[in-house]
Design goal:
By secondary structure, the chain is an alpha/beta fold. Helices cover about 40% and strands about 15% of the residues. It is built from 11 helices and 10 strands. It has helices at about 20-25, 30-45, 85-100, 115-130, 145-155, 165-175, 180-190, 210-220, 250-260, 280-285, 305-315; strands spanning about 50-60, 105-110, 135-140, 160, 195, 200, 225-230, 265-270, 290-295, 320. Helix 1 packs across helix 8, helix 2 packs across helix 9 and helix 8 packs parallel to helix 9 (about 250-260). The longest helix is centred in the middle third of the chain and has 16 residues, at about 115-130. The radius of gyration is 18 Å and the shape is globular. The structure holds S-adenosylmethionine, 6-(5-methyl-2-OXO-imidazolidin-4-yl)-hexanoic acid and iron/sulfur cluster.
Length: about 325
C-alpha cells in the first residue's frame, strides 16, 4: 500500500497533500487504526480521556441556515428560540459540571456572530467559570479580531468554530456564510492567542473525498487546532440532512484515525453522535486516537449518553478522566 512513510511518532506537518490523506483513508482498517494508535500512544496516555461539559447559553432562532442544525430558524425542528442565559444560572451549571469531574466548560450560542453587548456578558461568564478553576471554551459564531481580543482578555482558553466539511461540499450545507468567513474567524482567534477548537461532521451525505477535503483543510492550517471535534451527524427531524443514510461507524472511526495521524499533537474529540453509538463503536474511536468527549445528558439541544453510561463504559475500558 502506498501510504505516506512519514508517520514516525507523528511528526508535526502542515504540508499534507490531499493524495496522502486519501491514501491513509484507503488503508486496510487494521493498518490504519494500528498506525493511528501507535502515534496516539507516542503523544498521549492512551487510557486517558478528557471530559468537557457543554451548555447552550443561547438556544435556537439562529439566522444561519446550516442544514444539519436543529437551532436554525430556517428549519422547523421544534427548538424554541430563547434569550441569552443569566450569568448566575450559567455559573450554577458550571459548578455542577466541576463536581461531576469536567475539567473544561464549553458554552454555545446559536448566533451568526455575537452583538458587542452580548459579548460583554459572555466575557463575564468566562471570567466566572475560570474563577472556578476550569478551562473555558465558547462557540458564538463569527468573530471580529476585536471581539477575539476581548474574549482573550476575559481569560478564554478555547474557541470552537468548525469547518464542518470540505470546501467543495460546504455550499450544499450552508449558504449564509462562506468557508472563507470561517477561516477568517479562525485567524482572528489564533491571532488573539486563544486555543482553536475546530473540526467537522461526518454523515451529512458527503463523499469520502469531502471527508478527505475536511481533514486536509484542518491539517494544513498554519497551526493545527489544539482540539479537533469529529461529530457524527445527529439526525434531527426537520433539518434538510435528517433523512439521509446514517454515518457508517467504520468510516467514522477511519476519520478519527486520519485526524489523529495528520494532527498528532491535537486532542481529537469524539463529539456529537455518541447517544446512538454502541460501546464497541466508541471503544474503536478511542483506540483510533479520540481522547476527549462531551459528558452530560444533553449536548446543546440533542441527547448525549447519561453520566452512568459513560462511567460504566470508562470502567469497562479502563479509561481514566484526564486531569489537566
Ligand atoms: N453558532 C455557532 C457556530 O455555528 O459556530 C456555535 C454553535 S454550533 C451548534 C457548533 C457546531 O455544532 C457546528 O459547527 C456543528 O459542527 C455542530 N453541530 C450542530 N448540529 C449538529 C448535529 N445535528 N449533528 C452533529 N453536529 C452538529
Ligand atoms: C462541536 O463540534 N460539537 C458540539 C460543540 N462543538 C459545540 C455541538 C454538537 C451539537 C449537536 C447538536 C445539538 O445538540 O444541538
Ligand atoms: Fe446557527 Fe451555529 Fe446552528 Fe449554524 S450551526 S444554524 S450558526 S447555531
Amino acid at each position: 500500500m502506498n501510504a505516506p512513510a512519514n508517520l514516525d511518532a507523528g511528526k508535526l506537518r502542515h504540508d499534507w497533500s490531499r493524495q496522502e490523506i486519501a491514501d491513509l483513508f484507503a488503508l486496510p482498517f487494521a493498518d490504519l487504526i494500528y498506525r493511528a494508535h501507535t502515534v496516539h500512544r507516542a503523544r498521549f496516555d492512551a487510557n486517558e480521556v478528557q471530559i468537557s461539559t457543554l451548555l447552550s447559553i443561547k438556544t435556537g432562532g439562529c439566522p444561519e441556515d446550516c442544514a444539519y442544525c436543529p437551532q436554525s430558524a430556517t428549519h422547523d425542528t421544534g427548538v424554541k428560540a430563547e434569550k441569552l442565559m443569566e450569568i448566575e444560572a450559567v455559573l450554577r451549571d458550571a459548578r455542577a459540571a466541576k463536581e461531576g469531574g469536567a475539567t473544561r466548560f464549553c458554552m454555545g450560542a446559536a448566533w451568526r456572530s455575537p452583538k458587542d453587548r452580548d459579548l460583554d456578558t459572555v466575557c463575564q461568564m468566562v471570567e466566572g467559570v475560570r474563577a472556578l478553576g476550569m478551562e473555558t471554551c465558547v462557540t458564538l459564531g463569527m468573530l471580529t479580531a476585536m471581539q477575539a481580543d476581548k474574549l482573550k482578555a476575559a481569560g478564554l482558553d478555547y474557541y470552537n468554530h468548525n469547518l464542518d466539511t470540505s470546501p467543495e461540499y460546504y455550499g450544499e450545507i450552508i449558504s449564509t456564510r462562506t468557508y472563507q468567513d470561517r477561516l477568517d474567524t479562525l485567524t482572528h482567534v489564533r491571532d488573539a492567542g486563544i486555543h482553536v477548537c475546530c473540526g467537522g461532521i461526518v454523515g451529512m451525505g458527503e463523499a469520502r473525498n469531502d471527508r478527505i477535503g475536511m481533514i486536509h483543510a484542518l491539517a494544513t492550517l498554519p497551526v493545527h487546532p489544539e482540539s479537533v471535534p469529529i461529530n457524527m451527524l445527529v439526525q434531527v427531524e426537520g433539518t434538510p440532512v435528517s433523512k439521509g443514510q446514517a454515518a457508517d461507524i467504520i468510516e467514522f472511526v477511519r476519520t478519527i484515525a486520519v485526524a489523529r495521524l495528520t494532527m498528532p499533537a491535537s486532542m481529537v474529540r469524539l463529539s456529537a453522535g455518541r447517544e446512538t453509538m454502541s460501546d464497541e463503536g466508541q471503544a474503536l474511536a478511542f483506540f483510533a486516537g479520540a481522547n476527549s468527549i462531551f459528558c452530560g445528558a444533553k449536548l446543546l439541544t440533542t441527547p448525549n449518553p447519561s453520566r452512568d453510561r459513560d462511567t460504566a463504559l470508562f470502567e469497562r475500558l479502563g479509561i481514566q478522566a484526564m486531569t489537566f
